[in-house]
Amino acid sequence: MNAHLAGPQGAGTLRFAALLATYMQSANLPLPNAVLRLIQGSLSMTDDQAGWIFTSYLAASAITLPIAQWLAGRFGLKRVYQAALAFFVLGLLLATQATTPLEFVGARIIQGLASGVLAPLSMAISLETLPLEKRAKFGATWTAIVLFGIVSGPSIGGWIGEHYGWRPTFYLSLPLSAFIGLVMTLLLAEKKAEKRPTFDFFGFGSFTLGLISLQMLLDRGERLDWFASTEIWLEAIGCALGFYLFAVHVLTTKVHFLNKRLFNDRNFVLSTIIFFAVGFVLLSTMALTSPMLDEILGYPPDTTGSLTIPRGIGLVGAFLLMGRVPERFDRRLFVAAGVGVVIYANWLMLGYSPLMDWSPVAVAGAIQGIGIGILMPSLTNVAFSTLDPTLRPEGTGLFNLSRVYGSTLGVAIVQLYFFNNTQAMHLALASNLTPYRVGPMSLQALAGLNEMITGQAAFIAVVDQFKILMVAMLVVSPLVVFLRKPVPTN
């Protein structure tokens, strides 16, 4: 690849463009978070459909992420990267032109499919522009950029949405995409695998069938009254069949897209499970907090977006500081500390009140960001310190995929329980209102009373979901005890 670069300056420009693409695709995931109310109002989108804005992007990226390297080896790195960038731009344009919820979700799916290819290939391009001695530590930089994109996306979207409407939030990525495309066209040399690469499509397909069917079941179940619907039955059957075929495939074949040798390393397996929980908590918290501020408490989009900044500062700051911790310190202690801080942050969120100002949200968000910033690099160090170096490329893919899967299922689950709990709390609160207690009221007064009860019920339901996220971290916290002491990585 480096043969066609215009010296070190060309390599630096190529790496900058690849990192900019990494930031752009991660920032676009939560970008609509602070302007959900505007999107829902414009597209007549129901509350349960709003959750698809995130789950569609995540699920689509989880489909293409595992096959990105195979596509590059089979069809050429430059060609595949340019095609993914073009699809990402297409998704952006379709999102700005959407007039129905289905059109908007379809645009997000296209964005997600492209994102799943752009992320790993951007990292591969960045690595090849670096000297060999600097590649080992580059993973921390790349992860920090991904996290910065995730936590800064809502603040950017909120500010633009407040002043210019929600559609221009997607236009911001168009000039960035044009710059990235130009740099890749001029500086990136084509590269294919010398031998035609192989890929376990049966294992990948069966696993994807199970995952997507489960995702659809969770997203659509409430709307279709669960198993009273034929569609839900089909999705449940698809989920069971997909995971069954995948399990049989793993147990009966020697070669598949998840190497069985990965599961022989205790540290890697336990760290991957904890990393799944981190993904479950991080994006789910954001998917709950912004609608709570925007729709229930009535904050404007720019304020809602700005309240994600403390989480971002805490997360990225702690992440970068962890890179300066000497190797002699046992990283298991930092894993335990990170888990404890995240649990404490979610416990603080249980104290949210309709009467609070913005400060409790900023404080809890910053503490959660610090916890995750401590946890992620420490967990990565523990996971790969005992893993066979020959398995690290496959392990890296599975490790990062676990976070994506955790985020996908986490957002779907908290959205599902949010709507169920809102209905249950509305019924419980309204049951105490009788004509003998409130007296005769006009229709307008009754409508106002119902709106107030709905807001109270929704707020209680949001707080209940923070409890689920706290429990998720509590469940995986005992796994820290079973981690082996890390050894110096090669």
Automatic annotation (TrEMBL):
PROSITE patterns: MFS, SUGAR_TRANSPORT_2. Pfam families: MFS_1. SUPFAM superfamilies: MFS general substrate transporter. Keywords: Cell membrane, Membrane, Transmembrane, Transmembrane helix, Transport. The chain crosses the membrane at residues 50-68, 80-99, 105-127, 139-160, 172-189, 201-218, 230-247, 268-288, 308-326, 333-352, 358-376, 397-419, 458-483. It is a multi-pass membrane protein. Its main location: membrane. Residues 14-489 form the Major facilitator superfamily (MFS) profile domain. It is found in: Cell membrane. Belongs to the major facilitator superfamily. EmrB family. This is MFS transporter, DHA2 family, multidrug resistance protein.
